[in-house]
């Protein structure tokens, strides 16, 4: 069943919020950031490490007007594309943006 953009927004937001909440610790704060107007979704990690403040984008996704989900950043070993597929989003609706365009036709994901 094809998912609507609203359904995809809900699935992504829920999954990323849960991911951030579960990983919060005294050392690292994980935060979910959502730009509803432009449909950007991020999880960031921040905290102090040996007197140096660290800030990292852990995940960054965007739902474009075509309904495709563009995965820009995944700085984990979690296969978020697999997680989203288990939640009902088709692989053909996910573009792994950090893969070169020449490589995308050789995957099960969308090309663009």
Give the secondary structure arrangement, pairings included.
Blueprint: H1 5-23, E1 29-35, E2 40-49, E3 52-63, E4 69-74, H2 80-86, E5 94-96
Parallel strand pairs: 4-5
Antiparallel strand pairs: 1-2, 2-3, 3-4
Can you put this structure into words, describing what you see?
There is one protein chain. The chain has two helices and five strands; from the N terminus they run H-E-E-E-E-H-E. Strands 1-2-3-4-5 form a five-stranded mixed β-sheet, covered by helices on one side. It has a single domain, classed as 2-Layer Sandwich (TATA-Binding Protein), CATH 3.30.310.110. The chain has 112 residues and is of the alpha+beta class.
* CATH superfamily heading: XisI-like
The counted number of beta strands is 5
Structural class call reads: alpha+beta
How would you write the strand order of the largest sheet? 1-2-3-4-5
Rounded mean pLDDT is 95
The poorly predicted ranges are none
Q: What order do the helices and strands follow? A: HEEEEHE
Outline, from the CA principal axes?
globular
CA(first)-CA(last) distance: 20 Å
Query: What is the count of structural domains?
Result: 1
**What is the CATH architecture term?**
2-Layer Sandwich
């Amino acid at each position: 069943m094809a998912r609507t953009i609203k359904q995809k927004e809900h699935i992504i937001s829920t999954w990323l919020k849960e991911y951030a909440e579960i990983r919060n610790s005294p050392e690292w704060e994980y935060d979910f950031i959502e730009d509803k107007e432009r449909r950007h979704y991020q999880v960031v990690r921040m905290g102090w490490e040996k007197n140096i403040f660290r800030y990292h984008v852990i995940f960054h996704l965007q739902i474009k007007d075509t309904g495709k989900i563009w995965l820009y950043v995944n700085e984990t070993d979690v296969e978020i594309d697999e997680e989203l597929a288990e939640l009902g989003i088709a692989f053909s609706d996910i573009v792994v943006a950090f893969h070169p365009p020449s490589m995308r036709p050789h995957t099960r994901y969308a090309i663009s």
